[in-house]
Write a structure and sequence with these properties.
Blueprint: H1 2-33, E1 37-41, E2 46-48, E3 54-61, E4 69-70, E5 76-78, E6 83-85, E7 94-97, E8 102-106, E9 111-118, E10 122-132, E11 136-139, E12 143-158, E13 161-162, E14 168-169, E15 181-185, E16 188-189, H2 193-201, E17 208-214, E18 217-223, E19 226-227, E20 233-234, E21 237-252, E22 257-260, E23 276-282, E24 284-290, E25 299-304, E26 311-319, E27 322-327, H3 329-332, E28 340-341, E29 351-357, E30 364-373, E31 384-388, H4 391-397, E32 408-411, E33 414-423, E34 426-434, H5 435-439
Parallel strand pairs: 1-10
Antiparallel strand pairs: 2-8, 3-5, 3-7, 3-9, 4-5, 6-8, 9-10, 11-21, 11-28, 12-15, 12-21, 12-23, 13-14, 15-16, 15-17, 17-18, 19-20, 21-22, 22-27, 23-26, 24-25, 26-27, 29-30, 29-32, 30-31, 31-34, 32-33, 33-34
Amino acid sequence: MERRRKYRLILCLFLICAVTALFICWMLLIWERVPGMIHIRAGVQQELDLNVPVSGELYQNETNGGGGETSESGEAAVPVAGMAVAGKIPQKSLSVDLNKPLTLYAEELESYTMKLKLFGLIPFKTVQVEVIDDKTLIPAGIPIGIYVKTEGVLVIATGEFEGPDGQICAPAGRLLKEGDYILKVDGEEVEKKAAFMQRIADSGGEEMILTILREGQQFDVSVKPEQNQNGEYKLGIWIRDNAQGVGTLTWLDEDNSFGALGHGINDMDTSALMNLESGSLYKTEIVSITKGENGSPGELTGVIDYDESNCIGTIEANTDKGIFGSLYEESASQIISAALPIGLKQEVEEGEAEILCSVGGEPEIYTIEITGIHLDHDSINRGLEITVTDERLLALTGGIVQGMSGAPIIQNGKLIGAVTHVLVNDPTRGYGIFIENMLEH
């Protein structure tokens, strides 16, 4: 009897754990199906069909600094005067139920907050709703050469060296670390790697005050260069001040502003997003293609002449959603694709779509299939799962290759996103970012 009781207890505990695990998985699935940010177009009725068992209230965000209502979480909110659900405009808030199709309509560019509860009872998720202008963008799909200059110099590693007496030296070992930016030396701005290295060499071993930027915090450290076996003064650090590469221009707007890549430019050693001081786009010509294979991603190889005459625009921002800036008028005029309306997350469907890219020559349209849509993925650059189905592109590249990042994704006549990643074990498959996420920059 005692043994049976133990078995029953173990079985009950196992069932409880299994049910709990299933419930958590189900909750995570529901969580991902509800985006943390929803965009809707001003003056256009739009339907959300998320089919999830959550409901709640919609409040207009405080914009004037006072006089608003207070939501259940204690956050400021004001009466919803410009948003309607299924044509009704109540006085203080809108009741929303995402278990059935929800039609939203707003006239003005406003910001709203949706407080949602699971089954209408359990606090679940806060969703931001932004009303935006209807926008058209020109899909580009052209290859670009990229050059970015970091803010100061980036420390990519620290190390040791042998001094004249055979002792191990590490002057910066406990003071600097991978990912630090050295902005100033003794109060003077650091502009180039070569000049900084020369300053260390000429220091004579005198103490130097370095102004460091680390994880958004700026502070000073004192360090003394030491001699190596050749009598040269060193700090024992490896540094970088620029990055280059090839990518794809995603879109251009009516003001010649552009977005590209769909992901940021990260340092190859530290994997950290590079702090941008300045950057430029250059003409590039694809001269060779390394075809992607299982376990080995392919690559587009381009020739870039970093001459001022080949510069086609300036990079003004390097973010986790892509690089952004302005194209020169002459270069912008050579992009002749027709402008397309943007497609919002809730308008994207699984199924056939297209990408626009150049793999040697003029940009061409190639067919793909959208196989997964993640409205609230942990990685903003992986909202779309895509598979290349076009036999021409598969024959040329094997699928998605490095250098194709930023290729615009088009579905139902709308620009919906950009290619961002390839799966190493299957180059026919990859990921993309929603275009509305790129526009958030």
